[in-house]
Amino acid sequence: xxxxxxxxxxxxxxxxxxxxxxxxxxxxxxxxxxxxxxxxxxxxxxxxxxxxxxxxxxxxxxxxxxxxxxxxxxxxxxxxxxxxxxxxxxxxxxxxxxxxxxxxxxxxxxxxxxxxxxxxxxxxxxxxxxxxxxxxxxxxxxxxxxxxxxxxxxxxxxxxxxxxxxxxxxxxxxxx
Length: 176
Fold this sequence. Notes:
Elements: E1 13-16, H1 28-38, E2 43-47, H2 48-54, H3 59-65, E3 69-71, E4 73-74, E5 85-86, H4 90-104, H5 112-126, E6 131-133, H6 137-140, H7 143-146, E7 153-154, H8 156-166, H9 168-175
Helix pairs in contact: 1-8, 4-5, 8-9
């Protein structure tokens, strides 16, 4: 496992969802984000949910995920790995439930994937990351509603554009 550099308190930090792991390097926007990460201009993080999902069979993605620092989220029975989750507070449980309702509506039973989507967003929020990158249409469709949780969401292209507006280090890299 490679060593991770200490992030500047001014550096913008991005959480990447499992579906944008870019293991084959074919997504140009993700390639750009990864380049800025390698140059120390942004921080890229995965949630504990990513490795849990990737262990279900996408070995190439799991190998790629090793390069990202892992943010631990709250443990959910049947959806978390021991040693990769934290005990939840009552507030965490309430927020997780609110995220599930926001994303999927109020219902008596949520699928494992729906729970994991909400867990990833809660982990992003708990760790105060700046932008959540995903290609999940269900999450992207709730972009405005997620702002009430302080969560900015978009696809990789959206994230690149967002960074170009907000990050002087990224701007200087582009403008030379």
